[in-house]
Amino acid sequence: MPRITTPDGMKDHKLGGNFTFTAKRIEHLGATEYTLVTVAVDESGSVSGFMDQLLAMLKEAVGSCKASPRSDNLLVRVLYFSDRYRGGVTEIHGFKPLAEIDPAQYPMPNPGGWTPLCDAVYSAVGAMNKYGKELYDRDYLANGIAFVITDGGENASVATMPMVKAELAKSVTGEILESMVSILIGVNTASCKDHLDRFSKEAGMTQFIDAGDASAKTLAKIAKFVSRSVSSQSQSLGTGGPSKQIAATI
Amino acid sequence: MSALKQPRKLSLEGKGTVTIHPSDYLTSGGEGELYRIGDTVVKLYTDKEKMRRDGMIAKIALLRPLKHPSVVAPAGVVALPTGEPVGFHMPYVSGEPLSRLFTNDFRQREGFTHDMTKTLVERMREAVTFAHDKGAVLVDANELNWLARVKGADAPMPYVIDVDSWAIGKFGASVIMPSIRDWHRATFDQGSDWFAWAIVTFQLWSGIHPYKGKLDGYGPGDLLARMKANKSVFTSGVRLNRAVRDFRVIPPHLAQWYEATFESGLRERPPSAFASAVALGGAKTVLYAVTTGAGTLVFEKLFDEPLRRVVGVWPSGVLRLKDDSLVELRTKRTISTNAPPRCEVVKVEGGWLIAHVENGTLAAEYIALATLLPTKLTLPIGAQGLFRSGDRLFVVTLRGITELTLRLFSKPVLAVGGTWAVATNSTAFFDGVGVSDVLGAKFLVLPFGESACALVRAPELDSVAVVNAKGFGRFVAATVLSKTGDYKLLTFTFDREHGAYTFAGRIVDSPELNMAILPKGVAASIENDGVLSLTVPTEGRVVEVRDKHITTDMLLMRIDDQVLAVTGGALSSVRMR
């Protein structure tokens, strides 16, 4: 699939196992701290029945982030995953400022192949660790949030579960990223939700959400959940979290 | 998403009955939903009991008269047709959340300049001042509770929202964002509001929260720990990324106020960004500047009052005047009017510790920086004297030297820290260093770092009499009288672990040791008229600045990393530009 983003100001990075990603050159960044956001969307053959809604959800989720008070502190990466791609994923765009992203240009998923779930999580979290480390080394503060949206369980990855676990464990040490949230969202997963729940726990993801059917209403809810979670995670980085009850002592 | 599923009639106090529709939905907050009807915004509390339980009708009656262009105060109660109060209404304003204005991307995109920042910051100061004048405390005025209109007539215009959460009259506040909270106090008042204002507006100038940036000893998520420790971006050693804007864009007098607020606990109303006069620390008048090969040496007058001559300076930023009063240089506030003759003053959490030894007993007092209220401190410890290194204070006992620490609980408590066994009866304590004589073998006693102290054998001192000495960090200088009757200047430059040192010595004309050793590792000294030596002992580098204005009667001192000179009771700073 051709990249829809301009490579201007972007830099290629390598992860282990021939995984790659792109990200805005740090010298071009205009804020002092960032929340890294990754949205990975299943493009395996089984999503063919609701790919329109899936695309609408993706556009809405990323587009809604622009309303966040901290929209200029977000760097967003979007990828589709299917075993038809080398390494199981294709990057729609790498980490780049939200202002430079036009979600209307996101391409329609082209469903086909199997579900490389480990590849998707490994690429999503590994890239955040790698880029987060670069930011940290250049004295930027960063945290992260990753969403992996799928309708099926792992069945075709190059990356192994130990690789995934290692990246997730690294992401939550607090040494690179100030904090990290990883969410696996199951859509239309009545038959495999237990499997996905086990996957998320074994891998060490923060949360598994069984969103239910693949209706437009469900996917709209996911979009809202994604944008709100992003806003909340970014606010947490900038301010230590939302306003809190005042205790009687300090 | 609106919780309203169908149109609802509401009675707006002072406006009559209106019907709101789901399509009027604006946004949701922590406590309720906002709907816009023309130029009016209606806030409906999610908690149906909120209005009654929290006495919101009475509170809104107190807030309603707060008329100010930047204060979006409640304008009246909103009720159901049954009369049941469910919220309030207020004028509609539009603007950007302040957090957007922190980033360079937004500022470049929207053409938001430093001059606009200046105007916005000043108007925010006016809004807070207005609230205080009316008896209100904003409490939670974080960057998301400020909007800024950056386009149109009279822009930039700030708007403070969420006014129903303010404290006023008998009504207190219930929430506050951790990143703007003054963690040094348990209550919320005008002082804590100015601290919050400082946090938010500093980001408008610089783009970074004042307690962020990388600092050794703190992790990426240690924001609150940094706030509690007063370790701001002004702390030496903080590393900032390239997106942080140059602090020099901040008007100097306001920059001083920010630094005092973040580092020293100042909680006072800030000076105006437009003020031309220097509000803190007195006017810095350049006395003269000397251009040398290494740059320009500038002397700036900091304190010069004919009836209040400076006789001493502590690194904590406090001056001792001839009339025995103690004055904080930065704000010129008098923190004590009758200081004991041989007292020591060190900076501690939230204030200063003033201590002296009287009849073998330690006498100490804590002065709160915010209020200047003194608190007597007691510590039952037999004391022979005091020994100070920078802002670390030790009590000299028969057993050795014991570090004093101060903890702020509900009240300040003085406690003992580490103890180092030193033969105190045969130890001479100087400025930051002690010389201990153990049966003819001399040792240097040199506190370093935050909690360490080195006791190092120094055979070069065995056969001489130490007349004067100064030590700090990795450097010790001592003037000694040798057996041949010569005065010598001996210097000891330690490695990082303070396990070994490099020694140098030379004959000098007098035992005077007019030197200031800075934490950053530079020593400034005047040995002869006309020459100021700037030495980096660890690198062996020396720069000599020659000028007729440099005289040996300039007594060199320091505050933090700044070299000061006291001449005839007047204080000036000495720096390279």
UniProtKB/TrEMBL annotation, chain A:
Q: What are the transmembrane regions? A: none
Q: Where is the VWFA domain?
A: 36-226
SUPFAM superfamilies assigned to the protein according to its UniProt record, in alphabetical order: vWA-like (SSF53300)
**Domain of life here?**
Bacteria
- What is this protein's record name? VWFA domain-containing protein
Give the organism, scientific name. Answer: Candidatus Lloydbacteria bacterium RIFCSPHIGHO2_02_FULL_54_17
What is the taxonomic lineage of the source species?
Bacteria, Candidatus Lloydiibacteriota
